[in-house]
Design goal:
By secondary structure, the protein is of the alpha+beta class. The chain has 3 domains: about 120 residues, Alpha-Beta Complex (Dipeptide-binding Protein, domain 1), CATH 3.90.76; about 100 residues, Periplasmic binding protein-like II (D-Maltodextrin-Binding Protein, domain 2), CATH 3.40.190; about 220 residues, Dipeptide-binding Protein, Domain 3 (Dipeptide-binding Protein, domain 3, Roll). It is built from 18 helices and 23 strands. It has a 7-stranded mixed sheet with strand order 8-9-10-1-11-19-12, sandwiched between helices. A hairpin with a 6-residue loop joins strand 2 and strand 3. Helix 10 packs antiparallel against helix 12. The longest helix is centred in the last third of the chain and has 18 residues. The radius of gyration is 24 Å and the shape is globular. The N terminus and C terminus are likely disordered. InterPro entries: Peptide/Ni-bd (IPR030678), SBP_5 (IPR039424), SBP_5_dom (IPR000914).
Length: about 550
């Protein structure tokens, strides 16, 4: 049996160490001679350039994904499938290192400076061209952020940038941001895919009602250009031959939308795809056994959670929410549904994220305790078998559907009758944003690796609905603490404020944080330099396919 292998980027934290251990098979039944030979072969195979020579030019990189983007517009829906597509085409001023998660000037900004707490100045690379042939200038940066902050647009990404008070093009290649208050995480927010710089000319062309539609097309500066979107089926991106940096090796990238997990695995086995995303834990061994591909895992910034509509009975009562939370065994979820690929969550952020507080793991408020859960329900006025609730899931993830079934069983043990309703993905997002649910399951990634992204989106009353707070949770004290943390420049003080927020919100339980998931996927052995970022986007700028893959006829 093959050993699971890493793809080249690894976050050196305690969580990442545990993920590496979980991703390895047991070698205890291999004799010493065979083990030594395998180790030598693996070492050679892990070094892409030694195994296959120089990086190979050309090839069509086929990717099999479970979810379809909602929009190509960076200021549209804040969903992950859309982000995966947009990051191939749009570039940000700064980037987030996939190994350290630190902000770096590897983007469109050559450098940046913060002359005072409220001012950020970015110097742009010169000679950068958009896909429409226009040159990048500071005016494009200004137009991009003015667009996302337009009140009438009501962008789901506006919360990331609403502290920006003014944006000025100092000269053609210098842009200055002035914030309403000191905001230490601005650089992390500017690395978010919603900060992808758009062409001012393209923005104006769309506004004038010409043929361009930025929801279904894209005009960025990235290494790949938008080619085609056959909705419900596939998206195609081609190499940007006029890219300002080093050109990509690949000729094109194709996202194939394939909802069935087994189908994605079959496509990988039959050389119909190079990459299969979101492999069910139960299928990882099957992928591992393939002769032409490997089962891989990477650390993730993603968290799965269940939310309540806190504005509606019975979930307007914190005791009821606590009781439901205490009846769900996250460790059983990790072992039974995720098969060890992940960690039980007792809060909204893991230890890859600034603001993480390990003390939350020891909080008693929502730890598994079915007896206490029954007592809380009785105190809230519900006798056994009196409480009936509807739990929504969606067709985007078999793991989530399995999670809801296990939750149904566990809540049944304390006398709560749970009906599961499977809602189509687009309707799911719309209806949970409108508060039409009782209880739902969803995922959230702290993609900036800073707690503000999650705290403000999931817990602040200004984010109720589509921006993230689908629990419709409102707490004035929490709102104030989140804003205090936003305006605090001292990291230690910020961490203390986030600890206070976590103490309050874990106790009040507007959400049940269940599992910090891993990125589980299958990758053809013919692919080198593939980077799957912990924020679940792809960096294909240096990815290439070996000659063997070309001969294999992908």
């Amino acid at each position: 049996m093959k050993r699971y292998k890493r793809t080249g980027y690894f976050v050196g934290t305690a969580l990442a160490t545990s993920l590496l251990l979980a991703a390895c098979t047991d070698d205890s039944d291999v004799d010493e001679g065979a083990e030594e030979t395998e180790g030598e072969e693996e070492e050679e195979a892990d070094d892409g350039e030694e195994a296959s020579g120089e990086p190979q030019e050309g090839g069509d990189f086929m990717m099999s994904l479970p979810g379809e983007p909602v929009t190509m517009d960076p200021h549209g829906s804040n969903d992950n499938p859309s982000a995966q597509a947009r990051t191939l085409m749009y570039e940000t001023l700064v980037t987030q290192n996939p190994e350290t998660l630190e902000v770096e000037t590897e983007g469109l900004a050559e450098s940046f400076d913060q002359p005072d707490d409220d001012t950020w100045v970015f110097e742009l690379h010169e000679g950068v061209q958009f896909h429409n042939g226009e040159e990048l200038t500071a005016d494009d940066v200004v137009a991009t952020f003015e667009r996302v902050l337009e009140e009438d647009r009501a962008s789901e990404a506006a919360f990331l940038f609403e502290m920006i008070e003014d944006i000025e093009a100092v000269d053609d290649y210098t842009v200055e941001f002035t914030t309403e208050y000191p905001f230490a995480a601005l650089d992390a927010h500017l690395a978010h895919n919603a900060a992808g710089i758009m062409s001012e000319a393209a923005i104006e062309e769309e506004e004038e009602g010409d043929e361009l539609n930025l929801e279904t097309e894209a005009v960025g500066t990235g290494p790949f250009e938008f080619e085609d979107w056959t909705q419900g089926d596939s998206l195609t991106f081609t190499k940007n031959e006029d890219y300002w940096g080093d050109n990509a090796y690949l000729d094109s990238v194709t996202f194939e939308i394939v909802g069935e997990d087994l189908t994605r695995v079959s496509m990988l086995e039959n050389n119909e795809t190079h990459f299969a995303e979101d492999i069910q834990p139960t299928l990882m061994d099957q992928v591992d056994a393939l002769d032409n591909a490997s089962a891989l895992t990477e650390p993730s910034l993603s968290m799965t959670y269940m939310g309540f509509n806190t504005q509606e009975e019975p979930f307007d009562d914190p005791q009821v929410r606590q009781a439901i939370a205490m009846a769900i065994d996250n460790e059983m979820l990790v072992d039974g549904v995720y098969e060890g690929y992940g960690e039980a969550a007792n809060g909204p952020i893991n230890d890859l994220v600034f603001g993480y507080n390990e003390d939350v793991e020891d909080a008693d408020a929502t730890n598994y305790d079915p007896d206490q859960a029954q007592e809380l329900l009785a105190d809230a006025g519900y006798e056994e078998d009196e409480l009936e609730i509807t739990l929504w899931t969606n067709n985007e993830s078999d793991v989530r559907e399995q999670t809801t079934e296990l939750v149904q069983d566990q809540l049944g043990e304390i006398g709560v009758d749970v009906s599961i309703e499977n809602v189509e993905w687009g309707a799911y997002l719309d209806q949970t944003a409108e508060g039409e649910h009782e209880m739902f399951i969803l995922g959230w990634g702290t993609v900036t690796a800073d707690a503000d992204y999650t705290m403000y989106a999931l817990l602040h009353s200004d984010s109720v609905g589509a921006p993230g707070n689908r629990a419709f949770y409102e707490n004035d004290e929490v709102d104030d603490l989140i804003m205090d943390a936003r305006q605090e420049t001292d990291d230690d003080a910020r961490e203390e404020l986030y600890a206070e927020i976590l103490d309050i919100t874990v106790e009040e339980a507007p959400y049940i944080y269940t599992v910090f998931d891993e990125l589980r996927f299958g990758l053809s052995d013919s692919v080198e330099n593939f980077v799957f970022h912990p924020n679940r986007t792809f960096d294909l700028s240096e990815t290439y396919i070996t000659e063997d893959a070309e001969e294999g006829g992908y």
